[in-house]
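Quick log. Single chain, no ligands specified.
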Amino acid sequence: MNKLWLIIQREYLTRVRSRAFLLGTLLTPLAFGLFVALQYKFTTYRGNEKKHIAVFDEGGFIKTGIPDQRGVQFTVAPPGTTLDALKDDVRNKKYDGVLRLPPLTNLSVKKQTIFYYSDDRISPEVEGIMNRQVEEKIRDYKIGSLGLKKETIDELDIDVSLDPEPIDKEDDNASSLTSGVAVGISFFIGILMYMIVLIYGSMVMRSVMEEKTNRIVEVMMSSVKPFQLMLGKIIGSAGVGTTQLVMWAILNTLIFIGIQAFLGIDTAAAQANMSGGAPGMDPAQAQEILPRIMAELSKQNWWYLVGTSILFFIGGYFLYASMFAALGSAVGDDMGESQSLTFPVMLPIILAFLIMTSVVMRAPNSPLAVFASLFPLFSPIVMPGRLAFHPPFWQVALSLLILIGTAVFFVWIAGRIYRVGILMYGKKVTAKEIWKWMFY
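-> predicted structure:
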């Protein structure tokens, strides 16, 4: 056990003290902070550009003018003005474009086409503003033409939201946003597990390949057993990854708080501003829904979600890291050879990610989703993705037990490959050769 601890300590300190680790740990949060700041600036940037649009109202829809919005100014052409005259004004730079509103063929029309004349292309944001404003004016015109009162028609509008209610369960905190928030949490946890397992499992393989190429392992094998060396590298690399993730979490939080204070970012306003640029999206509605999403997030059992996800990460990491370590010992410095051998290991990770994003997020309790969350090569990614949908506890416990047992078995198998492959030089290794090493 003392030798194992020394290997873990050496692997951890060697990686943590390296220049690549320090630069990656410090520069990644800074790059993330810069990305957030630039994204906020770009989404709120309007510049000095303002669109002055002449409105040629052939249908007589506009009675009180169109209010300016987000840098777009509308001027309704006076009666008697011709379309050709307005086009000449555009050529003379008096207007940026002409918006023509043709008359309705009848009041029952459900779809109306409007025309915009300009040599300059308009942005999706400006197009969305024009569509929303004209839709509102045509609606008011229809109401007036039918002899109805706008107030009476407005009373007919209703916003329906689904409120899930349990029958036997005591948990009655579900709301209309519960499923949507669960999908978001599922996607975030699933993709995080996918990246962590893939990145830090590959880190173990690169570490083994480097020491095998440099012949350092020959000196180390004179003092420790191959299985101890492999297990120490796996645990040491896990410590490196955990340290980096913790530092990223702390630095990203501090940087985001600093950016928010320095730029004066209003989270709700920024969300509405980003959503308001999309055609057909109402900024007021986007700003209204954000507090509801935050309230739904606060109701989640984060201790259960995070704690269980960590257990699945540990099991998945040992399972895949042991396979990566075995492959790293079987190949030398030939990257082409390593890529061909690592594809079978990466394939289950990719399939698990596809199942999580394509199946779990649409049907979390379907037979395929349940099977994938129990199958040990898929469960480290799929089951954490299902946790937000509250699968039965027996499925979670069974999946975890199967994963732990499989991880122990794979570590044992990888140790048998490692003890032969780590001292094998100058020979091209095949899958058949690796299979024989398991039973030497």
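The two ends are 25 Å apart (CA to CA).
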